[in-house]
């Protein structure tokens, strides 16, 4: 039987478990990768592009794409979780045009067998801009999440993100990576 023809019952417990385990896992991994890239910088001591950084970039962009789908994807999807499944007013949330443009570039970059990947002009990925955007969305989402979904794990994630938010050094991040937002 095809996956799209399978009957799925998404219970409140399923939704709660998804947030508690998968949402927090994805965010912690995206966050870890972001800070690891900041720590390492973009180049090796010889000046070549750091292959580990590039691998981390791919990992980071996969997480960005996952969160784009969660916050801005199709809320009617029966298979993919969406913020609108938890907060009614998030069903109509639209991606800002600059985030949507980066999401399209990310899809091309992650499709290794794509002509567009070779023919499009390369733009350095603004990892700080992308991370901070999705961090702000996650904070807003978790703050507004109905209490029955806000587990201890998610509450801890929210506290960590709010603490990080209060310590932001965006200018320092931008200068370190020499990123221009466009």
Kindly list the characteristics that best describe this protein.
182 residues; mainly alpha; 7 helices
Q: Total number of helical segments? A: 7
What is the straight-line distance between the termini? Answer: 46 Å
Helix content: 55-70%
Overall pLDDT, averaged?
80
Judged by helices, strands and strand pairing, the structural class is mainly alpha
Contiguous low-pLDDT stretches (5 residues minimum) are 177-182
Most strands sheet:
none
Radius of gyration: 18 Å
Strand content is under 5%
The global form is globular
The succession of helices and strands, N to C, reads HHHHHHH
Q: Compute the number of strand runs.
A: 0
Describe the overall structure.
This protein has 182 residues and is mainly α. The protein is globular and about 45 Å long. The termini are far apart. Mean pLDDT is 80; it is low at 177-182. Helix content is 61%, strand content 0%. It has helices spanning 12-40, 51-72, 97-110, 115-119, 127-144, 152-166, 170-177.
């Amino acid at each position: 039987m095809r996956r799209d023809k399978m009957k799925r019952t998404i219970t409140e417990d399923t939704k709660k478990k998804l947030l508690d385990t998968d949402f927090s896992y994805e965010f912690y991994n995206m966050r870890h990768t972001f800070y690891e890239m900041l720590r390492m910088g973009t180049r090796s001591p010889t000046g070549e592009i750091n292959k580990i950084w590039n691998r981390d970039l791919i990992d980071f962009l996969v997480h960005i794409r996952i969160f784009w789908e969660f916050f801005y994807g199709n809320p009617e999807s029966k298979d993919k979780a969406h913020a609108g499944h938890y907060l009614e007013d998030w069903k109509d949330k639209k991606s800002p045009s600059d985030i949507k443009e980066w999401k399209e570039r990310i899809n091309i970059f992650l499709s290794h067998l794509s002509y567009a990947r070779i023919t499009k002009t390369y733009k350095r990925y603004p990892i700080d801009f992308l991370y901070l955007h999705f961090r702000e969305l996650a904070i807003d989402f978790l703050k507004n999440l109905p209490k029955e979904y806000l587990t201890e794990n998610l509450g801890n994630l929210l506290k960590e993100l709010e603490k990080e938010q209060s310590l932001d050094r965006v200018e320092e991040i931008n200068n370190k990576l020499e990123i221009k937002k466009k």
